[in-house]
Amino acid sequence: MGAQKKERTGKIISNRPLDRNENFWAMKIAAPESGFLPGQFFMIAVSEHSLRRAFAPSEFDGDGFAFIYGVVGEGTQTLSRLTADTPVSVIAPLGNGYDLSALTPDAAVILIGGGTGAPSLMPLAAALRRRQIKTHSLLGARDATRLLAAEELRAASDVLTVVTDDGSAGERGNVLTALNRIAAAAAIFACGPRPMLQAVSVWAAAKKIPCQVSLEERMACGFGACMGCAVAVNVNGEKKYRRVCADGPVFNGAEIAWE
Ligand code: FES
Questions:
Q1: Cβ(245) to ligand 1 under 6 A?
Q2: Are residues 90 and 11 in the same domain?
Q3: Tell me, what CATH number does 29's domain have?
Q4: Residue 140 resides in a domain
Q5: What distance in Å separates the CA atoms of residue 100 and residue 96, rounded to the nearest whole number?
Q6: Which end of the chain is more exposed for a tag (fewer CB within 10 A), N or C?
Q7: Same domain, 123 and 83
């Protein structure tokens, strides 16, 4: 499904904090690539001796990638200290993207993003718009300070609904609060924290709406060699394991063995 993966050296174009507390950052890397599909990811080495980290692009224009990340540990802290012109090792594209083959141009779909998963929906929203498919995006976050890519997704979607746990941006509630008001959709695509993906998948299964979710498991190798990203799925009533990096990261939400 994806293009052949390639390792190359990219160069940082910019790396800047998005908030006053410097919890979230946006990085752009010049790394020419073709054949990227929304939902695929890339891995970068943040230093010579560190493990690679997986990131899903928020923007991809053929000359490079942009992505948004939260500073959550040593690796992302190191990443936030890198400056423009620093060379980084990039492997991309990796994994399987969203499957849009069943959608007709008159379809209306729902995109659901939570936390740092939200910006990665932007290439998907752009691809759907090119196919004249109507999109209603639902963005959820704990509070306004953790809401990412809202303005960009507003521009890329036909309708945008924002919900926060404390009501500090958009409506008070969670994505299910908003989802419950939507009567029908041809498909749901979601990326964000696992509990959100589970709740959305269960909701979609009850309504018989196809639902694709992009899992954000921690990855080590990134291309299927270590099984460090295994996730349980139900196949014909049997529990099996799939590798998020190589078999996903996009899965049918109804097949995941949520627990
Ligand atoms: Fe190694 Fe997925 S990260 S198999």
A1: yes
A2: yes
A3: 2.40.30.10
A4: yes
A5: 12
A6: C
A7: no
Tell me the best of 42, 215, 216, 227 to mutate to test the pocket of ligand 1, counting ligand atoms within 8 Å of each CB and taking the most: 227
Q: What is the CATH number of the domain that holds 175?
A: 3.40.50.80
**Residue to mutate (ligand 1; options 5, 42, 96, 226; most atoms within 8 A of CB):** 226
C-beta of 91 in contact with ligand 1 (< 6 A): no
- Domain hosting 133: range is 108-216
Residues 120, 95: contact at Cβ < 8 Å? no
47, 65, 94: which is the final residue of a domain?
94
* Count of the separate structural domains present in the chain: 2
Q: How far apart are CA 65 and CA 67, in angstroms?
A: 7
Largest Cα span, the chain: 51
Question: How confident is the model over 153-186, as pLDDT tens digits?
Answer: 999 999 999 999 999 999 999 999 899 988 789 9
- Give the separation between CA 38 and CA 128, rounded to whole angstroms: 10
Distance CA 253, CA 202 (A): 8
Q: Is 202 exposed, middle or buried (0-12, 13-18, 19+ CB in 10 A)?
A: middle
Residue 227: CB within 6 Å of ligand 1? yes
Q: Do both 64 and 124 map to the same domain?
A: no
Taking the model in full, what pTM does it have? 0.92
Confidence of residue 232 (pLDDT cuts 50, 70, 90): very high
Checking 18-23 for CB contacts under 8 A at 24+ apart, the result is 18/68, 18/148, 19/145, 21/145, 22/71, 22/80, 23/70, 23/71, 23/145, 23/146
Domain presence at residue 238? no
Mean pLDDT computed over 236-252:
93
Does any domain span residue 236? Answer: no
**Which among 67, 94, 121 is the end of a domain?**
94
